[in-house]
Amino acid sequence: MIELRHFRYFVVVAEELNFRRASERIHIDQSPLSRAIRDLEDELGVRLLVRLPRALQLTPAGHKLLKECRMLLVRMERIKRTVRQTHALYQAPLSIGIADGIAQPKLSECLNRWRLVAPEVPLEIAEMRARELTSALKSEEVDVGFSFGVPDDHAIAQTPAWHYRVMALVPRDHELARHAVMPLSDLLAFPLLSCNEERLPGLLAQMQTIVRNYAEQVTPSGAASTLSGYVTRIAAGAGVGLADAGHTWALQRDDVLALPLAEEERITTFVLYKHQRFGISEPLQRFLAHVSDLS
């Protein structure tokens, strides 16, 4: 069976007209090189070379094959370049899972900048709950995710992506609305709206940690399942609340005031991915480095 190497060998032998020089040029022994040329002649059913005592000569068929082989090898190089260029311009998309209804400006900035710095790696975005994100990462339905945090799982890595300062949320007509800066002790003296543990487990855990640092006990006023629902309940007078500055900007409305806290507390958004036995893929490594640069 004729292989591409037979044509490459033949071109070198035809150009050198000497088996010794040809073997040195392509770094193989003379014997397998000579055998490859004889195999090529046998497969084609023609003589390509006249073997003289001190030299080789091309037959007419050899001259014709040399011309065809050169064109074939040039064509093969063009094919390789075209395929490699196509690969460089397109790679399989990264699948991004976004949990907890995150709508922070830094998330939008992260995704938009990626499209500028790595247009060859498109993104596919899917929205889901925090616990769904864990399952999707473990089953590799998504490559990477963003969340306020999920329950600890040895298969999933969670690293801080960025932080936003915590803001106090109060109805516009609330007596605390007169504050320019809100002490947490003043805010926590009023019924506090919480988050649904099933829907927003990471955000709830972070809020509880903050609250415990400033009050032994608070009066709960219910739990919201979404961030937009959280703000709506506060506007309706169901209680006061806490939210990160990114979402107070994204969900701003006339009937709710977002006031800076006197204390330096922050809410963390995490980037999550699955531990891989043999290491994570190169596009995912690049994406995680990109996220780190934004923090």
Automatic annotation (TrEMBL):
**Which residues are in the HTH lysR-type domain?**
2-59
Protein name per its UniProtKB record: Transcriptional regulator, LysR family
For the keyword Metal-binding, the answer is no
The text of the family note is:
Belongs to the LysR transcriptional regulatory family.
| Organism expressing this protein natively | Acidovorax delafieldii 2AN
Classification via CDD domains: PBP2_LTTR_aromatics_like (cd08414)
Keywords in alphabetical order: DNA-binding, Transcription, Transcription regulation
- Judging by the UniProt lineage, the source's domain of life is Bacteria
Recorded GO cellular component terms are: protein-DNA complex
Report if keyword NAD is assigned. no
Q: Per the record, a Pfam family?
A: LysR_substrate
User: One GO MF term, please?
Assistant: DNA-binding transcription factor activity
List, alphabetically, the InterPro entries matched: LysR_HTH_N (IPR000847), LysR_subst-bd (IPR005119), WH-like_DNA-bd_sf (IPR036388), WH_DNA-bd_sf (IPR036390)
